[in-house]
Description:
The protein is mainly alpha-helical and 213 residues long. It has one domain (3-211). The protein is 64% helix and 2% strand. It has 9 helices and 2 strands. Helix 1 (3-15) packs antiparallel against helix 9 (192-211). The N and C termini lie close together (8 Å).
Amino acid sequence: MGAAPFLLQLSGFIAGDRVSDTEETPGVITRYLREWRGGDGQALERLTTEVYSELRRRAAFVMNKLPGNRTIQPTALVHELYFQLPGIQHIDWQCRAQFLSVAAKMMRNILVDHARKRHAKKRGGTASLLVVEPPVKDPALHVDVLLIHQVLERFTVQYPRQSDVVELRFFGGLTAEETSAVLTARGIDSSLRTVERDWKFAQAWLHNAIQSQ
Length: 213
């Protein structure tokens, strides 16, 4: 796969996904997360109601127009994510963007696991890889989920902060502002300008890495 198509897809996904501040009351998600962490079982139900549609949109965005032989649908991806939520109940939740960042990592892992299972099941055959296809009708723009994962793993070793930016923006659909908020909450000095600079650097690095595949 060429580098340029992959970078076009990254830009296409991010440019098309913006969450308005008016979609939800500020602080509601954080309050539900903290109540859930404190043992309020009903808080998880309230949280689910509040964020389900947004997570479903983000999942659909990442998996936009997968080929017909895909192994997981956006709705199923979100449902599988919810089955795994008990494992993150203990987190000291600080903000909505933090939850979206955790969800992004979980969705990435789910997609990679499904791709690996498909590869294992079809090993030796001619089945297509699990890929993500952008809105543009061009088969050259298909992106292999495992290729993305493997390249990002290599990138993370050298540039962990910049890798976080890619994961948050690509798999989580976070804006540059949200990404900055998440990294800052983690104690990483990452201003909006830094995030934008890291994003450009990551694009250049990924361009070279994918071109060499």
